[in-house]
Design a protein that fits this description.
CATH class of one domain: Mainly Alpha
Radius of gyration: 32 Å
Order of helices and strands: HHHHHHHHH
Mean pLDDT: 83
Low-confidence stretches: 210-216
Strand content: under 5%
Helix content: over 70%
Number of helices: 9
Structural class: mainly alpha
Shape: elongated
Amino acid sequence: MDVYNSDAPQVEAIKSWWQENGKSIIAGVVIGFIGLFGWRFYNDHIRQKNEAAAAEYQTMMQSLGEKHDKAFDAVAQFADSHKDTYGDLARLQLASDAVKAGKLDLAAAQLRKVSEQAQDETFKPVAAIRLARVLTAQNKFDEALKVLNSVADEQYKAAVAEAKGDALLASAQPEKAREAYNAAIQAGKNGANPVLQMKLDDLAVAGNKTEVPAAK
């Protein structure tokens, strides 16, 4: 036997069910459409924002290449207003150009921000190593070594050791520098490093020159 033996009870049952559940169904459909269009709007907004940032970044880099130090302030402002990959890239390039212009304080400030605040974690060790080199050039050897000790990524072990050697050598610690350079060679994965070997050879020559001749 059918549950309903006529259409009337079925109609009444449907009406009753709709009165109880209709509003929630309509609300669910509306929310679904809002969510769909909202997601599309968000994606479009992000895409347009990224495209605008990319175009502005290219403009900044062109200005930096043409105007050099006269563009430093504008590039720094761009980086401050873009807490994203483009801002980090702008800081790295600005630091590089600042070093060439002899503005080490500016370079150090930009590199420190990237090493500590970069949105892309892969930028942090690169910026830290460059920062340490700038600090070494400023005779801030202890600070340079502290920055290098904060880099834990094994991928940069050789670069960190070499930068430590440079800081130690510049601070008149040749024996510790030699240890750091040897550690860099051992950590290297790309075969012999002629620059590192040259640094070690120079240390050996310097060491021989300081030896006291044996008494005859």
